[in-house]
Design brief:
homodimer; 368 residues; alpha+beta; Creatine Amidinohydrolase, Chain A, domain 1; six-stranded mixed β-sheet; aminopeptidase activity (chains A, B)
């Protein structure tokens, strides 16, 4: 689908000229990939007045798992190893007689910015800001299909884990096994480091697996993600180990479940991001858990696992249709453990059936 | 060993004042960890005229696998989520009446640099350059001990793999199994993505594992690394599958082995980095493989898997004692495969027995 990439670059070109710059130098890898179809290590993309050029530090690999560069794009490999493709890009923009070049100031370091200025002193460097990130917000149906496949993979990996014996195994081993299963089912790899928390570690956001073993009576919380052709999605579930959950476990689970459902149900085109956060947060808040909560209850996903929009109390902006987001509230009680429930969904209008749930593993409290 | 961290910060302070700046703001995670004993996500370190302060975006985790902050250090957690600790650090430096602040321009983005300027307009921002990276070059014996343990772990993981049946298994599965074994033997995790290449993929530097299965007659090349308490080392070996290697395989293996040995033997305090590279490279070069070689034949290791010194034709500088480096020449013949042999060693003076080999797995050509 080379025309997709060319169309994306044309949209960026329009934004640039509206902002007063003739050309843009894209350095952030996920942005390069979005516009070029591939992001070989260190490669940068010049979207200019002439031909668009992907500048690479070395020969782009034949068998790149990360995709192939769009064929409508010129690929230029730096002749000398160790050179900075961004510097070569500024040089090329100057050679194309561009007067100004927009760069990603939120990604480019001060030292590289200086090197660009020094190689092309007449080129005025402007700030591209998050223009490409903005373009990436709303996904097309092909992108959503890739996320959907990734979600099937995480659902499958998780369901297989639940069929195995868990008591006595360590968090680290469960995390590794989940990652192996992701690969077995066709993922490029995990979308982020798999988090498995047992007992007092359960429900902690971003908990890094330890050597603690699963015990009877534990909460077990799992958060994993798959990358499929570059697109990343995630799922989080909490289970209880043993036949009969304690009362506090049932209560806490029901509460987090209600918060997560409220967040999911709030997803609709035109809804403010902060209102989705509030829908979930106020349920936990009014139960007295307000102070220990994570700063957000969800975020966008796509070529990166954590991208815009942010579902936080201070977030600006509204949701659009075809924006995939996570909804992942949780409560962690220090020393006791906690619950986290996390889905990836796509915002859809009511007429299309409302939010599309990608991660369909059950959210009933399973006793394993 | 809190005094170690305090001593490192004092060395940095000396460099700063020699360079005319009163304080330094360290943002690069490996540098923060080197000076503070821990690098919680997003944390930055202010090494100033007053107390040194580790500024964190959130509460530093109790059970941080990445180490605990040095106790002689003040830890300050930002009150508001979403704030930038670097901005808070500049604010604090200004409050400490520092007139200038050295920042890591090779790590700080243009946007963050601008935010620092705007919060503390009277503070003159200077460039710290690679001052901390320079301090990190020569390791103390405690750091070398951690690398030695990491090397034992990779040796063990590799030797276990070699005892299993390999034919019919995919590159991806072998890579995952190696990573699981690293964890089994106590690694924090892999030091980088494990590379396993079979047949035509063998010997490719940085090859990402595919679904290709190991076949009789293949070269099988493996490159893996372990992180142990933050320190990263690596090993690379090439094997042949089946009872009798082909003549071209034996010849190519012997050649790369000779190049790698020459590189290892060149390691000594006072030797120019480029001379180590040349020692290995010229053997491959004179056999006619000069044009397709990787840009370097080795690099430093430590808190990062690829740090200074670089062993490349254009490298400046000389080796010192107690600098750990890799020596990893290789040849890849497109369509046929190749050989790569990679060790982690510590530069030691002749009087101490010469270079210390950390990765001791045999480099004979094993037929598996």
């Amino acid at each position: 689908m080379p025309e997709v990439y060319a169309a994306r670059r044309d949209r960026l070109r329009d934004r640039c000229s509206a902002g007063g710059s003739a050309a843009a130098l894209v350095t952030r890898p996920a942005n390069v990939r979005y516009l070029a179809g591939a992001a070989p290590q260190g490669a940068v993309l010049l979207v200019g007045t002439g031909e668009d050029v992907l500048l690479c530090a070395g020969p782009p690999d034949d068998e790149l798992i990360d995709g192939r560069p769009d064929e409508s794009l010129r690929v230029q490999v730096l002749p000398l190893p160790g050179g900075d493709p961004a510097v070569a890009g500024a040089d090329l923009a100057a050679a194309q007689s561009a007067e100004s070049l927009a760069v990603e100031e939120h990604h480019l370091t001060v030292a590289r910015h200086r090197a660009l200025t020094s190689v092309a002193p007449r080129l005025r460097l402007l700030d591209l800001g998050g223009a490409v990130e903005q373009l990436r917000l709303v996904k097309d149906e092909d992108e959503i299909s890739l996320l959907r496949i990734g979600a099937e993979i995480v659902d499958q990996a998780l369901s297989e884990l639940l069929e195995s014996i868990l008591v006595g195994r360590t968090e680290r081993h469960l995390a590794l096994e989940l990652e192996r299963r992701l690969i077995d089912h066709g993922a490029d790899g995990p979308a982020f480091s798999t988090s498995v928390g047992t007992g007092p570690n359960s429900g902690r956001p971003g908990h890094r697996p330890t050597d603690r073993r699963v015990e009877e009576g534990d909460f077990l919380s799992v958060c994993l993600g798959a990358t499929y052709r570059g697109y990343r999605c995630e799922i989080g579930r909490t289970f209880v180990i043993g036949t009969s959950p304690a009362d506090w476990q049932i209560e806490l689970y029901d509460l987090v479940f209600a918060a997560q459902r409220a967040g999911r149900q709030a997803l609709a085109p035109g809804v403010a991001c902060r209102d989705v956060d509030r829908a979930a947060r106020q349920i936990l808040d009014s139960a007295g858990y307000g102070s220990g909560l994570a700063p957000g209850t969800g975020h966008g996903v796509g070529l990166e696992i954590d991208e815009d929009p942010q579902l936080t109390p201070a977030a600006m902006g509204k949701l659009d249709a075809c924006v995939p987001v996570t909804v992942e509230p949780g409560v962690h009680l220090p020393g006791r453990g906690g619950v986290r429930i996390d889905d990836t969904l796509v915002v859809r209008p009511e007429a299309d059936g409302g939010p599309e749930l990608l991660t369909i593993t059950t959210k009933e409290l399973l006793a394993l």
